[in-house]
Amino acid sequence: MKASGDESLNGDSGFFPPVPWRWFLPLTALLALSIVLMTWPWAKTFASGVQTHWDPPFHAWKLEFAARQILDGRLLPLDGNTNMYYPNSGAFYYEALHWPQALFAAPLLFLGMGPVLTYHVTLIFFWALSGACLWALLRALGVSPVAAVLGALLFTIMPYRISYMVEFNMQLCFGIPLFLFFFLRFFQRPGVFYSCGAAVSWWLQATSELYQAFFLILLLPFPVLALLSGRLRLLKSVREFWKPAITAAVIGGVLSIVWLMPYTLILGSKTLSRGLSEIRSHSLEPLSYFVPFRGYFSFFGGINAIHDEMSVYPTLSLIVLSLIYLGDTHASMRHENIPRVERILRLARAAALTLFFAITIICYSFPGAAAYKFITIYSWIPFLVCLLCIPIVIYEGKRNRRGVLMEGMFSAVLFAFFMSLGPQLRVTAVGFKVSNSLFVWLYQHMEALSGFRVMSRFGFFVLLWMVLASAFALDRLLKEKRKWRRAAVIAMLSVLGIAFIYESVPRLKHDIQPLPCPLKSKVLDNLDLRKDPYVLAILPLGLRDEDSQHMLQASRFDRLSVYAWGGTYPPYTRSVENALNHSTSADPAHEAASLFRQLWPECLILEDKLFSRRATRHTNFAKHLKIKRPINYVDHFKNEATVEDEDERFVLLRLKQDETPAIEHIRLVRRDLMLQNPQVSFTAFAPDATSPRLIWLDVNGQNVGSWEIGVEPRSFKVVLPAELGIIPMPNRLSFRADDDYNDPFVLRDFSMGPADEGMLPVRPDTGSPQSWHDLLRKPPAGSVPLDAAFRGGLKVVAVDPPVASARPGSVFNVRYYVELPQSSRWLHRYFLTTGFTRDGMVVFESGGGFADQIDPYLFATEPRGLVHRIDMQVAVPPDFTPGDEFGLALTVRDDNNSGKRMSGRDSDGRKVRRIHMPFTFTVEDGAD
């Protein structure tokens, strides 16, 4: 559909619709009022409680924590730390940053507004702001004032947005329409202001809610091709294109490096890696867009399809208006001089889409049809449609039509629709599913995609385009001049408006839980009077609704906590939860106490009797129905801890000293606290030693000292070097018995603090790594050099001669010597296979990844150039014939790309894809 007027999207033609910014804030207020009215009486409880769900307390906690950092003079917390998930660093990046929202909330908190009310005010403001930004985009597209306001209203109160009342994250989408506004303005009138506005808008979205910012990057090639293909002359202009583009790239790059680079560290450490099975549970199916969401009304309510965490049903109004837009667009194109190739491409895309939905409906209506093999074409239709979209948007841009952005957006939305279906195309009602080749291919080739699990959120862009299309349709309909048609239009729009309100108003009652913050508690007050630092293990743990309340009400922004909810669960947190679980732990009290004793500062146990000593039933959408039996943690930890304080709600337990001798004692501390308290003090003795014994201390895999101990306790001090501190893992201090004796010893009175006057940091002993590290300066004598280097820093240095023969069906070991890649991302990406060759061709190979053989702490701190021993098991196929001879070859493969062979370089610089080793292997006779 063409918008009003016939001007092309070209700055020289004068098409630059003005945006009356004086109405921006009043419109934001009007949209905020519409939200309050649609969700009434929710607003009556903004200061006293939240909806009964685990998300609001969690997001209120994070908003307050980030705002308090700003009030304390820090843009971002050191190392991306929060007070949760102790001792892991970087937890600020386990979830969306909410940084612009924290900047908005900081003065509210400073003026004394409570965290619960601050959360709700911030939520409503940014929710309404997104509608106002969409209004600006519609005005820049040339949509009339009335249609633009109606479009903003549709965008603000459609079921998708209302269904996310409890999900703070997904109301923070203002940056998407704001980016599109500046993006469009740049192509209307190129300049530095608009290019930088687009860069800053994307950054605002990314620091508010990273999901949509990342998804926008994936969708952006389609509108870019559409707009740029019609204006290729821009690429020749330094002033109009390259200067604005480079300036925007510099500004956006600097902002991203400061605020977003830590995400790459978390992703590279595999902390946030999402598997296909997890992603599959947060994806949609084609018919999900017609299904009502938990009590909402839909005119297609009889359809049986899954839905995820929100409503993607666009309402009858958006469906009808979008169809009007598409019909009018098609009608206008009939009168245009469209190249035959483009018409063929459009016809092919329409046929592919028709086939896709025809197969969906056939399989839904006739379950037996899913068994036919021709249905496998279903898997490749998304790929085909998106490939066809590329030349279509290029042709569209060359014709330089006013609707070029909408055409680019339409192609992007088709891509978003297929991506929202996740790794599988499903019709769950009949058990039909096939692989989504488009998604799986991108997942294999784009590592960043593995950091996001809720693919259903791609549906946001589908609904965004439908709102834009509806606004264009409204614009056209409201300009109808003939009386009888105008009366029909008014009647139709009235019906659609009533239907929209009826479908958008939530049907379920607002279930509000009181959430006083801060809590009135003698135990919590006394905790704040403690002079020594401490960590809290708040029990019970493992249920989202309770954990999120503890985050906001008990941990707040200044008490370290070993457990929380939101984003992910690092290994230490998972270990604590498993240790407290009777079904996975033989002695849960002792196992949990042992884990708590590893922490510095001292870990205290805080029992919330309100949750622990009553039987409750929790409806958890992730774990379905979970029944929690009552438990008295004072009795549970009676052999491990003593009561230190108690009031009506809380009881505080302090762990007893554990002086059980062991050959290794672990202490964990977060990096920022290690840097502030580098001096380690401890007492050690070996009660069963008959002569002096040696103990070693390594920090994150690097030796920092050794001490002689005996039967009598001796005290020691050492100052740790700052360069050994790491993120995002806990910093591990490992006290070990010397390998020559391996006598158990007792470690007591462990503490950390500022360095005493005159105490200097020790130098890590990298010259003589201990045997437990499996590190070598160079391969041992007798090994055979291989000398092949691969991307990312991996070097296969040498190999020990393997066995010369083995029986069919047996397994033998091959020991390789390698220098590890420079980053954990490459470490987890590579795997090695050893193959049997004949005439230079591999006839069988086996092997696997070697990341699990590497101590992650050592990997994070070791000096590069040291050699690791890597043992790989090689299987001899049972069908090999005794007496056959084979060569052996090593292949380095890419685990992220379906086992693709990786190319390397030998010592002479020649390309190598398979390393043939100078060994001969003979198959033995399998008889006894």
Helix proportion of residues, in percent?
Answer: 25-40%
What is the structural class?
alpha+beta
Distance between the termini: 81 Å
Q: What is the overall silhouette?
A: globular
- Quaternary state, please? single chain
Mean model confidence by pLDDT: 88
What's the number of helices? 28
% residues in beta strands: 15-25%
Spatially, the strands of the biggest sheet line up as 19-26-23-21-20-29-30
User: For the report, how would you describe the main beta sheet?
Assistant: 7 strands, antiparallel
Low-confidence stretches: 1-13, 619-625
Give an overview of the whole structure.
By secondary structure, the protein is of the alpha+beta class. The protein is built from 28 helices and 31 strands. A hairpin with a 3-residue loop joins β10 and β11.
What would the keywords be for this entry?
single chain, 928 residues, alpha+beta, seven-stranded antiparallel sheet, six-stranded mixed sheet, 31 strands, 40% helix, disordered N terminus
